[in-house]
Design a protein that fits this description.
single chain, mainly alpha, about 140 residues
Length: about 140
């Protein structure tokens, strides 16, 4: 009976770890997508050729890469998580819709679907207990 109480106590004190690990994984995923967005020039040029002129294409590439990389780092450390995810959501929704406009890619569809679900989750949940936001809130 004592071991059940100890396990229950441990579970109650560590309930935030899985969500924090999920948040960190989501941030790493977005950061790596930003790096991939910079390194895949030909693939991006084929997708963004719909845009027309070169200036808007380059502006879009730099915006998306910067938003994913900086936002990913902010989500990893849990600093302004809701704001960071809010900036990511239009990009992720466009990636989701791009599967239906351009050639359908099943793996990209699954990745963007999971990213949308996690984004909505962290928009509602926030950064969690083990984050810079929580630490700064407790310092006040």
């Amino acid at each position: 009976m004592a071991t059940i109480r100890e396990l229950n106590k441990w579970a109650n004190t560590h309930t935030y770890y899985p969500i924090d690990i999920l948040r960190i994984g989501y941030g790493v995923f977005l950061f790596l997508k930003g790096v991939e967005f910079i390194t895949e020039h030909r693939y991006l040029h084929d997708i963004l050729s719909i845009m027309g002129n070169f200036a808007s294409e380059m502006l879009l590439i730099h915006y998306v890469a910067l938003a994913h990389m900086v936002g990913g780092i902010m989500i990893i450390i849990g600093f302004l998580t809701r704001w960071s995810v809010g900036v990511q959501m239009p990009i992720i929704l466009c990636a989701f819709l791009l599967n239906f406009i351009h050639q359908f890619n099943y793996s990209e569809f699954i990745q963007s679907s999971i990213a949308i679900v996690l984004g909505i989750t962290f928009l509602l949940y926030g950064s969690g207990k083990h984050s810079a936001d929580y630490y700064l809130k407790m310092e006040q």
